[in-house]
Amino acid sequence: MSLIASQPVQDVPALQQQGGCTDAPVLRERGQREVFCGLTGIIWLHRKIQDAFFLIVGSRTCAHLMQSAAGVMIFAEPRFATAVIEERDLAGMADVNDELDTVVARLLARRPDIRMLFLVGSCPSEVIKLDLSRAAQRLSKQYLPAVRVLNYSGSGIETTFTEGEDACLASLVPELPAESATAATSLLVVGALADVIEDQFARLFTQLGIDTVRYLPARRASELPPVGPQTRYLLAQPFLAETARRLEDRGATRLAAPFPLGIEGTTGWLKAAADEWNVAAETFEKVIAAPRKRAETALVRHRETLSGKRIFFFPDSQLELPLARFLARELGMELVEVGTPYLHRQHLAEELALLPAGTSLSEGQDVDRQLDRCRAARPDLVVAGLGLANPLEAEGIRTKWSIELVFTPIQGFDQAGDLAELFARPLNRRERLKV
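Below the sequence we write its predicted C-alpha cells.
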C-alpha cells in the first residue's frame, strides 16, 4: 500500500404559494446512473474542517478522480490523500491492515497538525471487504487523545456525489458530546457551508437574538457541538438524511424549513429559527430587510435573461428541488422536468409545497430514458453532471454542470445573485458566441 498525496487551485414580487407539488406524482426510475461517487464530498469537506485529514483507502483511479475534481494548486497543502491498494494487497501477499497502519503512522508524523483523521472507504476497499470501522477503532486507541480516527464510506457502490458528506457527518454524530443537564435551547446548523456564508448567518442569528448557534461540521475537531433534547437543528443541505436520523436518535429536533437558496428559501429558513425562539415579526423583518433588499437588486438583471426560459434537471446532487423552486418562483423559469437521485419527502416538504403545480418530478435515474425526454423537449438549459453535459453541448443543448452548484457558495441572501448568475452564464455565453 502506498500513499498518494493530492497535489496542490426591479424587486422580487411578493411570492404566494400556488398549488404546489406536495401530493404530485413522482416518476421513479431504476436503471443506469450517471453520477460521481461520494468521494468527491472530500473536495469541500477538507476545506471546512481545518485540522482534519481525509485518507482514502482505494485505487490509483480514486487518486486521479480526486486530483482532477479538486484542481488543487501545486503550492497548496491539501488535507486529503489516497492510500493506494496495490496488486500485492489484492493478491494477499501483504497484510492490508499492517500496510494501512504504516501509512497512517507516516502521515501523522509528517502532519502533526492533524487532529481528526477520516479513513474513507472506496469501491476497491469495499470489494476486498476491508473493515475500516475496526481499523479506525484500533488506530483511535493508538493515537488518542492527540488524534481521533473515524471512518465512513465514499464508495460508489454505496454512495453518490453528495451522499459522501452525509456519510461523513453521520460518522461524527456519535462523537458529539452530550448536552449538560442544565443546557438552554441551542440551534445547530447542519451541513458544510463556506466560512463566509457561515459568518453571514451567524451575524443574522445574533441580530435575531439567537445566541447559542453551533455548526456541524465545526471548523476544528476540538469544537464539536454538544447535542441532546435541547438541540434544535436546521438542515443547510437537502442530502443529509442519515445525519438527521442520527441527530434525532440523540434527542435533537429538526426545524422544518425550505433550504436557504434565494430570497424566499433563505427567508423561510431563518424564519423557522426565529419562530422557535419567539422572535417578534417586526424584529425579524428589520433584521433581514437590508440583505433581502441587496438580493432583490442582484436578481434583477438575471431575471431578464432567465425569465421564460425552459430548464431540465438531471438527477445528481439532491439540490435539484430547492434550485428548481428558486428558478421558477424568483426568476420566472419554466420547469420541464426536475429529477433528483432521492426524494426525501419529509425534509423536502416545504420545497414541494412551493414548486409550481404540475411540475414533472422524477426520482432515481434511467439515463437513456431521461436523455430521450430531454432531447424531445429541447429545453433552453439542462443541469447535469459532467458525463452528460459535454455530450449534450455537442448536440447544441446548453448545460450547467451540477457539480459547480455544490462547489460554489450559493446559500443566503448575499449569494442569491451569484446563484442566479450560474444559470444565466451559459445562456449569455451562447448569445456572445453567435455571429
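Confidence is low (pLDDT under 50) at residues 7-17.
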